Amino acid sequence: MNVIETDRLILRWLSPDDAAFILELLNDPSWLRFIGDKGVRTLEDARNYILTGPMEMYSRLGFGLYLTELKEEKTPIGICGLIKRDSLEDVDIGFAFLSGFQSKGYGYEAASATMAYGIDQLGLKRIVAITSKDNQHSSSLLEKIGMTFERLVTLPGDTEELKLYTSDSKME
Q: Where are the alpha helices (DSSP H) in 95-158?
């Protein structure tokens, strides 16, 4: 199901058919460095990740992480979407792109459209984001889409301090 369309991108629901792409993305060097090793090593692991993560969230909340693909070629390049983590009070935006598709404006295009979708279509008043302290590219992108650094947080069960960014809707 297509959710968001931009000039160059389509953001759509992930399905088990996207397992090969998810296997590649979750083992991309930038994913492993900045997001962490999710232990996805096989197509079956990738299918399970899709089923128990994004697809479960779609059925429970109506939103989640979306496969982001080039509109013309239908080439998957990353994921971008909204997530509701038990460890954060607010919905947060998340994104990750294959290394070969970074620094081409796709992250900005997908993230800004996702923010607009969250505010305009889902009625969210506040969206947050978390990123590792050394992920300067993500921090810059979050600021570019209008978010501001609020504070450092440590999620339950983790030891790493993360940067928390916020964007309060102008519609309050």
A: 106-120, 136-144
pLDDT digits (tens, 9 = 90+) for 158-167: 888 999 999 9
**Residue 122's pLDDT is what?**
96
Here the tokens at position 39 are 């232990």
Whether 125 and 156 have beta carbons less than 8 Å apart is answered as no
Tell me if residue 150 falls in helix, strand or coil: strand
Measured CA to CA, the distance from residue 101 to residue 83 in angstroms comes to 22
Q: Domain spans of the chain?
A: 2-168
Q: Which residue has the tokens 């300067």?
A: 136
Q: List b or e across 10-42, with b for residues whose CB sees 16 or more CB atoms inside 10 angstroms.
A: bbbbbeeebbebbbebbebebbeeebeeeebee
Q: 2-168 maps to which CATH number?
A: 3.40.630.30
